[in-house]
Amino acid sequence: MNNKELVKAAFDAMQKAYAPYSCYKVGAALLSKSGTVYSGCNVENAAYGPTNCAERTAFFKAVSEGEREFLKIAIVGGKNGNVNDLFMPCGVCRQVMAEFCDGDFEVIVARSTDDFSVFTLSELLPYGFSKSNITE
Ligand code: THU
């Protein structure tokens, strides 16, 4: 699975977004080390707080299927599903990534399957708090 294919999977996932309040549609595609792709979309809620981001949907699907090791995630998003710019993951999603991924985990943010940037998790969450801080 190359980056272009993973971005395509994120665009497909974005079509499933449930975002009636913000109208921001977000899609993510997470590649596990086992080679399986887990897709995710944002799922909003009338009470706002229970809303789940696309990236966390993908991670929680994967972890609940027994996956623990990941290579990279592609993320796309935009108002009404129109992707005009890079959609950067929120701080909560970066923290969830840090629970399961090392600093070299790749975060691919895309405008299209031909126009994307790749960041490492350590670039997006420097000096983060992780399980290494509370375990021996
Ligand atoms: N959202 C995501 O899906 N991922 C992020 O990293 C940030 C925000 C969603 C949540 C909400 O449904 C919409 O984008 C607007 O905040």
What attributes characterize this protein structure?
136 residues, alpha+beta, 5-stranded mixed β-sheet, 4 helices, binds tetrahydrodeoxyuridine
The Rg value, from CA coordinates, equals: 14 Å
N-to-C SSE string, H for helix and E for strand: HEEHEHEEH
Largest sheet properties: 5 strands, mixed
Give the overall average pLDDT.
97
Could you estimate the helical fraction of the residues in percent?
25-40%
- From the helix content, strand content and strand pairing, which structural class follows? alpha+beta
Note the overall shape: globular
Bound compounds, each kind once, are: tetrahydrodeoxyuridine
The largest sheet has its strands arranged as 2-1-3-4-5
Please, how many helices? 4
Q: How much of the sequence is in beta strands?
A: 25-35%
Total number of strands: 5
What's the N-to-C terminus distance? 35 Å
Q: Which regions are unreliable across 5 or more consecutive residues at pLDDT < 50?
A: none
